[in-house]
Structure prediction request, 308 residues.
Amino acid sequence: MVGFMEWLFFIIGIGMIIKVLLNFCHSLTILFAKTDFSEYGYNSWALVTGASDGLGLAISEFLASQGFNIILIGRNQEKLTKVSGQLKEKYPIQIKIIVKDFSVSSANPQTFFLDIKEQTKNLDVSILVNNVGSGAGANCFASLAEERVLWANAINLWPAVFLTKLYLPDMTLRKNRSAVINITSSLALVKLPKCSVYCASKGFMHSFSMIVAEEAKYLSSKNKGRLDVMSVLPSCIDTQMIKMREIKPLLVNPYDCAFWICKSIGSVSYTGGHWKHEYFYLLWTLFGSFSFQLINIFARLLKNKSFY
Ligand SMILES: NC(=O)c1ccc[n+]([C@@H]2O[C@H](COP(=O)([O-])OP(=O)(O)OC[C@H]3O[C@@H](n4cnc5c(N)ncnc54)[C@H](OP(=O)(O)O)[C@@H]3O)[C@@H](O)[C@H]2O)c1
Prediction:
């Protein structure tokens, strides 16, 4: 005779197996995802924040290679002009540079971001990439200076929130496809001590992104165009930002990462980005913080293989 407890454990077990299978299917979707960039409209623009370096630069380059005109936003005029020159040399596209230091956006966010919208008012923006982000410094929250908290939140939160607010309404009215890509981090899920402000801001961005993604599905069904919102939760990308290069198994090239991110637009509402990070995400949902140990064991087993 099967008792109540046996049934309960049986149902919980089945539920967990279904969850694992669904997560696995999600990871497979990323592997086979493909985006048709011609659907975004001829001569449309992609706006990328933090475009002068790292992942933002790599995404700008990938989208330029697909024929998008690019609005490069960053704080360093010299670096942006150099990037603009390099992209124009390689691809027959238009580039607009907007110099903005997001760390001062807290003082008056409405005016700060409205100025960006004003500068792009005649451009048909089809893709918004909320990429800019920065850590607040590795310190316990109790010891973190208030200015540092404000500084990091001004870079990590307001650009994504206000730019999405300003560009989303126009995107919902476009006849062609549109997309918002929010670069968050695997630290949206991993609760890392001495990284409270960064982890929490990325957690906020991920939740924000997932909710707007659901709303976008509803708005798209009402209008003719299609709007996709995607949260990207990468682990370690080889850029200026990353200091811990010993996390080799998860370290990926920003250009590879940009390729995987852009090819997933419209297929999923969240992704680890690069396939390695997608599978880390899968491991994390199954094993939590034990995933790090598993990755290290795996990496040691494959020491001389291409996993590095
Ligand atoms: N690297 C990783 O391992 C990793 C992992 C997970 C998530 N992420 C996320 O990925 C995104 C890109 O990171 P990344 O690694 O490419 O960083 P990065 O190499 O440091 O590049 C950051 C970009 O943002 C710009 N930027 C920084 N502060 C700014 C400010 N106050 N105002 C305007 N622009 C500013 C930088 O401009 P300058 O050229 O002037 O410095 C640069 O163009 C971030 O949101 C980050 O949180 C990164």
In short: The radius of gyration is 20 Å.
